[in-house]
C-alpha cells in the first residue's frame, strides 16, 4: 500500500489554521465531508470519540486521527500542515503541526491497519517530516508524500 493510494492531490492542506485540538478536528471533519460526501458532524463525532479512547498524537509533532464509517467505499486520507502547531495532548506532550487523517470503511479490516502502519512509518521518518515542514505548497507536499524513496522502510 502506497501513500498515494490513501491521499489524493486534492486532499492536501498546506496551511491549516486552528487554535485547539477540537477546532483542528472540526476543520478536518469539514474538509473530509467535502471529500467523501459524509456528514461533517458525523466525521467530527467519530474523530472525537476515537480521541477519547486515547490520543492519536503519536509524538514528534505528528497526529494520525482516524475513524471508521459504515457507508464509505474506500479509504480516504487527508494530510494537513498546520500554520501554527496546536496542543493535541500527544504522547510526548509536544504540539502537533503535521496531521494525517484517515477515514476508512467499517469493513476495511486489515487494510485499515496496513494504512495506519504505512502512515506511521512515513511520519516517523525525521527526514520526511523536516521536508514536509519546510514546504508550504500543496503540490510540493503531495509530491513529498508520494515520493517512493521517502519513508519506505
The CATH fourth-level homologous superfamily: Mannitol-specific EII, Chain A
Number of domains: 1
- Helix and strand string, N-terminal first? EHHEEEEEHHH
Report, as a whole number of angstroms, the end-to-end distance: 12 Å
3D architecture notes:
Helix content is 41%, strand content 26%. The protein is an alpha/beta fold. It has one domain (3-145): 3-Layer(aba) Sandwich (Mannitol-specific EII, Chain A). β2 and β3 (62-63) form a beta hairpin. The radius of gyration is 14 Å and the shape is globular. The relative contact order is 0.21.
List keywords for this structure.
26% strand; 153 residues; Mannitol-specific EII, Chain A; 6 strands; alpha/beta
Briefly characterize the structure.
By secondary structure, this protein is an alpha/beta fold. It is 41% helix and 26% strand.
Write the layout of secondary structure elements.
Elements: E1 7-16, H1 21-36, H2 40-53, E2 57-59, E3 62-63, E4 66-69, E5 76-86, E6 96-105, H3 110-124, H4 126-133, H5 138-146
Parallel strand pairs: 1-5, 3-6, 4-6
Antiparallel strand pairs: 2-3, 5-6
Helix pairs in contact: 1-2
Amino acid at each position: 500500500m502506497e501513500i498515494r493510494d490513501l491521499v489524493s492531490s486534492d486532499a492536501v492542506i498546506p496551511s491549516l489554521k486552528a487554535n485547539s485540538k477540537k477546532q483542528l478536528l472540526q476543520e478536518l471533519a469539514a474538509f473530509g465531508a467535502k471529500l467523501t460526501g459524509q456528514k461533517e458532524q458525523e466525521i467530527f463525532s467519530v474523530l472525537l470519540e476515537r480521541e477519547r479512547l486515547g490520543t492519536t498524537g503519536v509524538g514528534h509533532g505528528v497526529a494520525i486521527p482516524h475513524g471508521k464509517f459504515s457507508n464509505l467505499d474506500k479509504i480516504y486520507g487527508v494530510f494537513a500542515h498546520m500554520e501554527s502547531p496546536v496542543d493535541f495532548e500527544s504522547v510526548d506532550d509536544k504540539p502537533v503541526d503535521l496531521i494525517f487523517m484517515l477515514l476508512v470503511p467499517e469493513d476495511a479490516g486489515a487494510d485499515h491497519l496496513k494504512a495506519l502502519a504505512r502512515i506511521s512509518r512515513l511520519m516517523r521518518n525525521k527526514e520526511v517530516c523536516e521536508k514536509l515542514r519546510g514546504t508550504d505548497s500543496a503540490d510540493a507536499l503531495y509530491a513529498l508524500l508520494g515520493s517512493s524513496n521517502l519513508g519506505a522502510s
